[in-house]
Design a protein that fits this description.
About 15% of the residues lie in helices and about 40% in strands. The chain has one helix and seven strands; from the N terminus they run E-E-E-H-E-E-E-E.
């Protein structure tokens, strides 16, 4: 096991499908999409932020979001959950 930015444990990706995922939406890059899709039409976004060192994002636990362009596997595990970067559709 390796330690990444912010003391986050990095593990192999093999077990990713068996663990819960925490989707992270980069705040600075997608502020307009977060305002419209997450706070506007969805409302299931979690309040708070997670800092991975390279980016800070807003967490979401919704597996099937209609506003997702794509999900990017990071291979990072934090508190027993896999961190997945979520890219939203343009507004």
């Amino acid at each position: 096991m390796r330690i990444g930015a912010g003391g986050i444990r990095l593990k192999k990706r093999v077990a990713m499908n068996t663990k819960r995922k925490l989707y992270l939406i980069p705040f600075e890059a997608q502020k307009a999409q977060i305002d419209v899709w997450c706070f506007g039409s969805c409302g299931r976004i979690l309040f708070g932020a997670i800092d991975l060192g390279l980016c800070t994002g807003v967490p979401c636990r919704t597996d099937h979001c209609p506003h997702v362009d794509r999900d990017i596997d990071t291979g990072i595990e934090r508190d027993g959950e896999w961190i997945v970067i979520r890219k939203l559709l343009p507004v």
